[in-house]
């Protein structure tokens, strides 16, 4: 069973290594989708408790970035780097974490499944 929980937060950032409009400080109303997979417990009928996922994301991710400047948390807060930072904070605490989708705008998002970046990057 795959569980999906949606979160919304607001944050500012600038992309210091980008030559374009996002070099300047600006903000987004982000949407975060968290997917976790696990078997359904026959006793409770639940795979993962929605409330537990909400608590973990609030405590270990949103508390540090909601209504904040992402450059205070990450050197280069691209959507890609932000979602990898989120994954690194959640994965040890949320068994079955399968995928995270981070939307900067309604039509622009990154999807991360915990995969390594390749020879020039790290996560």
Overview of the structural elements:
The protein has 123 residues and is α+β, with helices and mostly antiparallel strands. It has 2 helices and 5 strands; from the N terminus they run ββαβαββ. Strands 3-1-2-4-5 form a 5-stranded mixed sheet. The longest helix is centred in the middle third of the chain and has 16 residues, at 50-65. The radius of gyration is 15 Å and the shape is elongated.
Please give the structural blueprint.
Blueprint: E1 2-13, E2 26-37, H1 50-65, E3 68-69, H2 79-90, E4 97-105, E5 108-112
Parallel strand pairs: 1-3
Antiparallel strand pairs: 1-2, 2-4, 4-5
CATH topology: Tetrahydropterin Synthase, Chain A
- Secondary-structure-based class equals alpha+beta
- Computed Rg: 15 Å
Distance between the termini: 27 Å
Largest sheet: 5 strands, mixed
Query: What share of residues are in beta strands?
Result: 25-35%
User: What is the overall shape?
Assistant: elongated
Please indicate the count of domains. 1
Helix content: 10-25%
Mean pLDDT: 94
Q: Which series of helices and strands comes N to C?
A: EEHEHEE
What's the β-strand tally? 5
Uncertain stretches: none
Strand order, largest beta sheet: 3-1-2-4-5
Task: Quickly list its features.
Tetrahydropterin Synthase, Chain A; elongated; 2 helices; 23% helix; 123 residues; 5 strands; five-stranded mixed sheet; alpha+beta
Short summary:
The protein is of the alpha+beta class. It has helices at 50-65, 79-90, and strands at residues 2-13, 26-37, 68-69, 97-105, 108-112. The chain has one domain (2-112): 2-Layer Sandwich (Tetrahydropterin Synthase, Chain A), CATH 3.30.479.10.
């Amino acid at each position: 069973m795959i569980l999906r929980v949606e979160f919304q937060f607001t944050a500012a950032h600038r992309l210091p290594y980008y030559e374009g409009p996002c070099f300047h400080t600006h903000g987004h109303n982000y949407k975060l989708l968290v997917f976790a997979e696990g078997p359904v417990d026959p006793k409770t009928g639940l795979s993962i408790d929605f409330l537990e996922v909400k608590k973990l994301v609030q405590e270990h991710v949103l508390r540090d970035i909601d209504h904040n400047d992402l450059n205070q948390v990450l050197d280069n807060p691209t959507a890609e780097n932000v979602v990898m930072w989120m994954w690194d904070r959640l994965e040890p605490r949320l068994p079955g974490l399968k995928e995270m989708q981070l939307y900067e705008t309604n039509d622009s998002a990154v999807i991360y499944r915990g995969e390594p970046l390749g020879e020039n990057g790290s996560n």
